[in-house]
Amino acid sequence: MDPLHWLDERADTRRAAGLRRELRPRAAETPAIDLASNDYLGLVRHPEVLAGAIAAVHRWGTGATGSRLVTGTTEDHARLEQELAEFVGAEAGLVFSSGYTANLGVVTALAGRGALVVSDAGSHASLVDACRLSRARVAIAAHRDPAAVDRLLAARTEERALVLTDSVFSADGDLAPLVELHRVARANGAVLVVDEAHGLGVRGRGGRGLVHELGLSGAPDLVVTATLSKSFAAQGGAVLASERVRAHLVDAARTFIFDTGLAPAAVGAARAALAVLRREPELAGRVRERAAALARIAGVGEPDSAVVPVILGDAAAAFDAAQACRGLGVEVGCFRPPTVAEGTARLRLTARADLTDAELTVIAGVLGEVLDLARERVAS
Ligand SMILES: Cc1ncc(COP(=O)(O)O)c(C=O)c1O
Asked: Per the entry, which co-factors are needed (predicted)?
């Protein structure tokens, strides 16, 4: 008997529900307008960012050569950590090989058996997996609901507790009530962990993130996690926190210890992207303004971030609409269950700071046509 026969059944079920996923290798040169990537600041081909990556490869080679604790920490890793921490107003930084491993590392190292982790219902999958891996008791709080978090924290028997949330939620682009969450966490002796993957480069003065915007930077009981793969046009992740937390992660975060250090090219690219953003702080405002333009075109409410969700509801309708956009030269994201809740399948448009007015005109034509049809289909 074929021990994997059930894979075909699962595939059939997903196909019938319009939930099959496929990989579409990109060509290097494509005329398509990109509204699907997370290259929010449009820096992924910026000459200085390319030069930063190339210089790092020439200096250090193509790989980090080992785990961070052995040979995988170059002087440039240390510089990037300092620069990122300084940028967001944290005491210290620690770079991981991805935002995913940064989240796993923080939560597993700061929680563990005998702790409580309270996570927003909309937290990113990497935080969800971090909860599972932590062996802590996990409680899910309603989305953006500090009162629910307060109740869960107050009723706990565990001494230690962590509260987890995205700052900008990846599927809806909405914002976490960070001031209230921090107040509630502090009142209950808990640590707040904020994933700024979609906040850095977009929110806050010069793109310093939502934590900075709300005056929470540097709080000793707040830990920021970040990815270098979105606004910073590279790859990798970071934790930005106190020296004390950083030192603990170096000792105890398994995804830091048992993982090869971030490749030098990514370090060099991220440093260069950060330098561009520091020199051109207006990029953050520009991506927000472009997002607002996309929202007007799509007929949805004003966004709080670079993410513009266009909810269609039905998974097959969303999938077909995304395909139609692609056929007309506009690449859009398509989020379906289980990434988003049942009945909320959507197109996910992401703005870039370098979207031109001419591109917006093309987008208006394409989205106008595709969304009219999709909305009619869903309504009938
Ligand atoms: C909110 C959020 N956190 C973490 C991650 C993971 O970051 P990375 O891609 O660097 O692993 C992502 C997406 O990539 C994300 O959207």
From this structure: pyridoxal 5'-phosphate
Task: Please check whether residue 128 is in contact with residue 104, taking contact to mean a CB–CB distance below 8 angstroms.
Answer: no
Which residue range forms the structural domain that includes residue 293?
281-379
Examine the fold and report which residue of 257, 279, 301 is the final residue of a domain before the chain moves on. Answer: 279
Is 124:237 a contact under the CB 8 Å cutoff?
Answer: no
Report whether residue 124 contacts ligand 1, using a CB cutoff of 6 Å: yes
Amino acid making up residue 2 = D
Are 112 and 260 part of one and the same domain?
Answer: yes
Q: What's the CA-to-centroid distance between 69 and ligand 1, angstroms? A: 24
pLDDT in tens, 99-127: 999 999 999 999 999 999 999 999 999 99
Angle at 63 between CA 62 and CA 64, to 5 degrees: 135
Q: Which residue's alpha carbon is at the smallest distance from atom 15 of ligand 1?
A: 197
Task: Verify whether ligand 1 is closer than 6 Å to residue 209 (CB atom).
Answer: no
Q: What is the structure's pLDDT at 22?
A: 85
The finding on whether 126 has its CB within 6 A of some atom of ligand 1 is yes
Task: Please work out whether the CB of residue 204 comes within 6 Å of at least one atom of ligand 1.
Answer: no
> What's at 293, amino acid-wise?
A
Residue 31 — very low, low, confident or very high, per pLDDT cuts 50/70/90?
confident
Asked if residue 100 has its Cβ within 6 Å of ligand 1, the reply is yes
Q: What is the mean pLDDT of residues 17-43?
A: 89
Asked whether 170 lines ligand 1 (CB < 6 A), one says: yes
Amino acid sitting at position 142: A
- Show which of 258, 279, 300 is a domain's final residue: 279
Q: Does this model's pTM top 0.90?
A: yes
Which atom of ligand 1 has the smallest separation from the CA of 169? 1
